[in-house]
Amino acid sequence: MPVRRGPAPNPNSVRRNKDHALGEHRLTGGAGAGRELPKALGISTSGAKRFWKTWASAPQTEGWMDTDWAELEIVTKLVDAFYLGDMKLAGEIRQRVGKWGATTEDRARLRMSFDKQVEEEATCAPEPASPTDMDAELYKLLSEG
């Protein structure tokens, strides 16, 4: 019989980390609904406009509330100032987009994952056949028999 070291385990112990799915965020992987860039923001640089377009259609936005969109507006203003030359904003921008899951590392930390099945269907979905193609295929099948 092996010799045990330390105290015996408690028979009524509760494992606190047993449910790994707790807090996991599953996303479909498709583009979000998105929103148009508000003209009232006064965004002038193409980099900030591209930033808005990228984030507004990102899969992470599928469950966003108005407060999240307001945060995107603020960060887009920071990105606009960054592209106008205010380089000291880079760290602030990085911290804020990290909370949305900007990089693979951020998404791992946030337990954010994309639904692979939906993602694969979106990338591998065949083009729907036109009605004339379907008629020709049906005619071919019926005339062979």
How many DSSP H or I helices?
A: 6
* Sequence of strands across the biggest β-sheet: 1-2
Mean pLDDT: 79
* Residues in helices, as a percent range: 40-55%
Q: Main β-sheet: number of strands, strand sense, barrel status?
A: 2 strands, parallel
Radius of gyration of CA atoms, rounded to a whole number: 25 Å
**What overall form do the CA principal axes indicate?**
flat
Query: How far is the N terminus from the C terminus?
Result: 76 Å
Proportion of strand residues: under 5%
Description of the molecule:
The longest helix has 18 residues, at 66-83. With 145 residues, the chain is mainly alpha-helical. The protein is flat. A two-stranded parallel sheet has the order 1-2. The protein has one domain. The protein contains six helices and two strands, in the order βααααβαα. It has helices at 46-56, 66-83, 90-98, 104-109, 116-124, 131-144; strands at residues 25-27, 112-114.
Tags for this entry?
single chain, 145 residues, mainly alpha, two-stranded parallel sheet
SSE layout and pairing:
Blueprint: E1 25-27, H1 46-56, H2 66-83, H3 90-98, H4 104-109, E2 112-114, H5 116-124, H6 131-144
Parallel strand pairs: 1-2
Write a concise synopsis of the structure shown.
The protein has 145 residues and is mainly alpha-helical. The protein is 46% helix and 4% strand. The protein has one domain (25-144).
